[in-house]
Input
Amino acid sequence: MSTIAEVEFPADEFALRHALSSVPEAEFEIVRLAAHDADHVMPYVRVSGTDADTMTEALEADPSIENAELLDDLDDELLYRMNWVDNIRVIMHVLLDEGGTVMEMYGQGTRWHLRILFPTRDALSATHEFCTDKGLTFSIKNIYDLKQSTGRGEFGLTENQYTALVTAAERGYFDVPRDVTMSELAADLGVSQQALSERLRRGHKTLVESALRVGDSSFGDDS
Output
């Protein structure tokens, strides 16, 4: 049975370790991740919480990446394309050896947080064993098995989460590049950027878990 795992990596054991440590206020979100061969990964990376000059300087000094290119500067966030060439053994194992899919990935300061879809529970176990053998950290926070289910059911979104997600989709917030910034979207909804960020993140998590029939989850905070 397919399995979703929420895991964490220490930043100093993974790509972009220098950029995360040198600009700790910046948050990195992986928009798209593709492994073209066994030696490098080419992600699109969305960065918020810093300016283009500061981040570009940090990326140029990071030995784990090459060819970082700033594609868009949208005031409150930046979009880069780059190659990861070092400290990528874990992600290469997940993508190439176990056939996993990275559904969500973001990092800040000292940690990377990932949501990974594995084709089987054995693939998750194999990844954990791989990391143990290599002396790498692979902290599993939650595990969900995908359950077969009929009928539509309810997605479980709060009204605020639903409104935020629908408005964001209609305004092109999820497009690459984005058609609207977080600040513009927050202004449209009459909330702070922090409140909107929390609604989108919690709503996205609830939507994925409900739509894919992922294990039981409850969300009491209508932030």
